[in-house]
Amino acid sequence: MPALCRDCLTTFDDAQRCPSCGSPRVLRHPELFDLTIAHMDCDAFYASVEKRDNPELADKPVIIGGGKRGVVSTACYVARIRGVRSAMPMFQALKLCPDAVVIRPRMSVYAEVSKQIRAMMDALTPVVEPLSLDEAFMDLTGTEKLHGAPPAVMLARLVKRMKDELGVTGSVGLSHNKFLAKVASDLDKPRGFSVIGKAETEAFLHDQPVRLIWGVGAAAQASLDKAGIRTFADLKRWDRRDLEARFGTFGYRLWHLARGQDRRRVSPNAPVKSISKETTFFEDTASTELLDGHIWRLSEQVADRAKAKGKAGRVVVLKLKRADHSLISRRVSLSDPTQIADRIYRTARGLYDQVAGQGPFRLIGVGLSEVVPDEAADITGDLLDPGAGQRAKAERATDAIRKKFGSDAILKGRSLR
Amino acid sequence: MKFSIERGTLLKAVGQAQSVVERRNTIPILANVLIEAEGESVSFRATDLDIEVVDKTVAQVERSGATTVSAVTLHEIVRKLPDGALVELTDDGASGRLTVQAGRSNFSLATLPKEDFPVMASSEYGANFSASAVELRRLFDKSKFAISTEETRYYLNGVYMHVATGEDGQVLRCVATDGHRLARIDSDLPEGAETMPGVIVPRKTVGELRKLLDDDEAKIAVSVSETKVRFATPEITLTSKVIDGTFPDYTRVIPQGNTRKLEVDAAEFAKAVDRVATVSSERSRAVKLSLDEDRLVLSVNAPDAGAADEELAVAYGDERLEIGFNAKYLLEIAGQVDRENAVFLFNSSGDPTLMREGTDTSAVYVVMPMRV
């Protein structure tokens, strides 16, 4: 059986320990050198970065998250042993783990590390599909000749490099499609490397719960429960037409997933459908002055993202969450797509004025949807707002200054509110 | 209530009613038409709380009375009845049903009490005047394409009808704009309109009004207050709230100093724009106008789809100019020209362009260029 040492990257033919370095971290699988679709997921990414930057935290429970009523964004493995999970309200996490060190997320640092990891992945294959800062799919089909080593070896080298050079660890899932690669990467965390081969696919899935499927959340789970579907074995008993009749296109997908089939390709340029940013307040607020500052900052962040991606949106969306968690969402179509913060802000502010009386609010979000390439963005002027063109030019100039001297080189007074 | 009415007459009255009622609404009575029979006539009244339309028509009334019934259902029934049929509507009051009978067809429709029907509060109209259907048609038909659909700028969701000072004194003027194009249409000021307050007539009202204006000979009685506007023919009365907002100062938007003049046959121009725009699949198709001595080249360049150009012989004597426009906007304003050549007045490729028909300044259009 083909085998690989995850420490020294030696390949050999079946042994419990590495014949070269003696390490027990040996991967053995009949299809090990034939599989090409991988999913890499960093282990407690934000927490790992914090621990790397502050070695004193190494053995302490660390929670990344923020605010009096924030939620846990990431918990390190020490905190996870105590029951802390991501998306858990902070007060609950602190009840479980009162000695935890809570750290406000430093997104710019994580983004920087993420970029370095991305560069390492790009060296393996041009087909990298990032899902977030800390996970990505890779298709290494046809790269064996180029690297002189099969994908499994290159992936083991990738996580080794991440650990040696960046000080963060990751888990790898290797299989023959995206669905199974993602399932595999989660099997043996942290520092895992799991393989699901073609031959064992159906046997492996048989007793697994259907919530394994990415995208099956509480709601989908409930409707599957109603249909008596809990495991893949249950799912497999269903006729394809019945599944489609009951669940629509999702049913079609379920039928294939039940058989371990997933024909989605790893696509490096997943189309951006919308760009949005939101923020939760420390305390509920109905202050228009305060909210106006948030609308501006969020508009600016959304515009920055759009500009960076070369995108523009035809629809501006404003989202507000009231104190009782009920959601207000307002959208408006523009005559031509935009990526200008000033225009996003003015439109979102107009939407806010329509619902301002319904506060206080606990969350506000601004977004662009119906996103298109930015060639056709902001090309028609506004008769009634002759200053708009000037402001857009000023914004482009501001962008250029920031690029050269840093993001806070020049600010609008409005953003300080 | 019991009356007989000719199918064609009934269809027209119910048709007007059903187009006013909102398709989706949560208040059941608002889906209904109020039918009132008295003396020699029957009136059909419908409302969406912003607009109210009353169509009064002659019928053979046997027993007076009133009831309300679903406007859409009644309209569908009448539409499907054979032409020329005599329709009998009976409401016995006790059963809560309205019977519709024509030939061998019988329908029994659920009703709601007439007392529940909201009647629009009457208003003091500060100005009352009479305008010809032809003039009103021109004012609204030529301006309505520029009405904005953007809800955040609700004050642009209608036509601004007001008294203004034109080149030859006071005029009745309609203006509409969405920020990208603007239409300003003038007509002679009817007697009695001098004191009229400026009002923004909502888009839906403009659409409903159009149905009153088909008869060239008709005179329309117009009444205007700060909050409402009413248009009436002898049969139909359309009352509408106006948009509560301030229409922006459009006068500063209309360019005064544009000197580069292009004169072109509007129909030829529109056809050429339409042809070259075909290659671009984008929603905002940009057409580039390249102007040189008596020559206009229209071109479209869509990197993904293809390119097209077409040359037109025009009258142009100024410096070379290249300027881009949204094809749809150009087609719309060129479509307004019906008698003479279209005259475009440009300044630069970044400034608003003005368009009028020949030397006639009673209809002026402004369109914003696109970066190309």
Automatic annotation (TrEMBL), chain A:
Catalysed transformations (reactions):
DNA(n) + a 2'-deoxyribonucleoside 5'-triphosphate = DNA(n+1) + diphosphate
Task: Supply the name of the protein.
Answer: DNA polymerase IV
Q: What's its EC?
A: 2.7.7.7
Example GO molecular function: damaged DNA binding
Q: Which gene encodes it?
A: dinB
User: Lineage, please?
Assistant: Bacteria, Pseudomonadati, Pseudomonadota, Alphaproteobacteria, Rhodobacterales
The free-text cofactor remark is:
Binds 2 magnesium ions per subunit.
Q: What does this protein do?
A: Poorly processive, error-prone DNA polymerase involved in untargeted mutagenesis. Copies undamaged DNA at stalled replication forks, which arise in vivo from mismatched or misaligned primer ends. These misaligned primers can be extended by PolIV. Exhibits no 3'-5' exonuclease (proofreading) activity. May be involved in translesional synthesis, in conjunction with the beta clamp from PolIII.
What cellular component GO annotations does this protein have?
cytosol
Which family does this protein fall into? Belongs to the DNA polymerase type-Y family.
| Cofactor list | Mg(2+)
Per UniProt, the enzyme's principal EC class comes to transferase
The primary site where this protein sits is cytoplasm
Where does it localize? Answer: Cytoplasm
Automatic annotation (TrEMBL), chain B:
Q: Where are the transmembrane segments?
A: none
Q: Name one GO biological process term.
A: DNA strand elongation involved in DNA replication
Domain DNA polymerase III beta sliding clamp C-terminal as annotated: residue spans: 252-371
Keyword terms, alphabetized: Cytoplasm, DNA replication, DNA-binding, DNA-directed DNA polymerase, Nucleotidyltransferase, Transferase
Give the Gene Ontology MF terms in alphabetical order.
3'-5' exonuclease activity; DNA binding; DNA-directed DNA polymerase activity
- The DNA polymerase III beta sliding clamp N-terminal domain sits at 1-120
This entry carries the following GO cellular component terms, namely: cytoplasm; DNA polymerase III complex
Any idea where the DNA polymerase III beta sliding clamp central domain is?
135-249
- Task performed by this protein: Confers DNA tethering and processivity to DNA polymerases and other proteins. Acts as a clamp, forming a ring around DNA (a reaction catalyzed by the clamp-loading complex) which diffuses in an ATP-independent manner freely and bidirectionally along dsDNA. Initially characterized for its ability to contact the catalytic subunit of DNA polymerase III (Pol III), a complex, multichain enzyme responsible for most of the replicative synthesis in bacteria; Pol III exhibits 3'-5' exonuclease proofreading activity.
Q: How does it assemble?
A: Forms a ring-shaped head-to-tail homodimer around DNA.
Q: Which PANTHER family match?
A: BETA SLIDING CLAMP, DNA POLYMERASE III SUBUNIT BETA
What family is it from? Answer: Belongs to the beta sliding clamp family.
The protein depicted here goes by the name Beta sliding clamp
Species: Actibacterium mucosum KCTC 23349
